[in-house]
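Sanity check record (used in CI):
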Amino acid sequence: LLFLCGLQACEVFRARADAEVRSRANFKIRMRAFSVMAGVGALAIAVLSPTGYFGPLTARVRALFMEHTRTGNPLVDSVAEHRKTNPQAYEYFLDFTYSMWMLGTVLQLLGAAVGSRKEARLFMGLYSLATYYFSDRMSRLMVLAGPAAAAIAAGILGIPYEWCWTQLTGWASPNTSARESKSKEDGPCKTKRNQRQTVATKLDHGARARATAAIKFMETALERVPLVLRAAIAIGIIGATVGTPYVYQFQARCIQSSYSFAVPRIMFHTQLRTGETVIVKDYVEAYEWLRDNTPADARVLSWWDYGYQITGIGNRTSLADGNTWNHEHIATIGKMLASPVAEAHSLVRHMADYVLIWAGQSGDLMKSPHMARIGNSVYHDICPNDPLCQHFGFYKNDRNRPKPMMRASL
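Expected output for STT3/PglB/AglB core domain-containing protein:
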């Protein structure tokens, strides 16, 4: 935001100085403005830093640059969405655009080096690389990859479709006129500016000129083909791509995926052995039972994953939910759930009226080691001399063989 404000200020100064946008005077204005901004920023940092105003990077930010299970915060480490993205997830969510994404990124960067629209191509290439890095580091950031992959894939698909449209309608691409005007600008004109060009600039112009000449050669070769034949080729390309069965398969897959994404986790379809499709509503019915069989002012202790459902469906007060940011708050809940029964009761009876425990697959038994680790990060008596709480859990991940600390816990 400060950078954009600085650009606006530079534009005001440029207008007052009546300087051209691409001029040395405008460059000096920007250098002076941003130098002042950098100096003010450095002074502010020097003054505020000793006061402790700037804290360390949060655990979630650290998870973007290191393995998500080594951030030092067990609460962040326990969230599945913070793990590294599975490579198969790209193919599942991005479909055919995934295979075109990286190829298109390389083409964009090459186009920025030797082609036209250098700034736009460079932006798309860097944007694509940045989104790929962050989406790869954390699975919940997979959503960032969608716009980048779609834009890059559209750029590749647009090349043949643009040519086909030109053959059928006679429409001229803006790239053509841009290349022609650029060729004229890069032509040999003896001006003071050209005389002051460095060797690197001349080499850059030479590379662009060769790329433009190659494109022009291909366009000229295609123009020698009779118009009727070019139109037939264009119709064939469009028909081969639009009429392929994969288009309809992709459409059906999108519709199916939309249903999967829209299904809430607390209620889902499943199929019995008889082939009958039923709706599993165990979670919803449990929250409705809680609403109908507890006092209206009841306080419910549960792991923070279920806080929203307890409040929204059960209409009861939850001690924590997904919006609870205080680490000690959630660690206290972890201590109450991971402590031995007698000790846990002495704590719970002061804070809650009911305790909600989810059993079954993906229930609290599976999450209990995370509860112990998070609680132990604040209350070290849960797992003495064992920061990772390796003695709290199950033998060989067998749910029927709990370890002594697990067996004694609430």
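Residues 68-253 form one domain. If this sentence no longer matches the regenerated tokens, the check is flagged for review.
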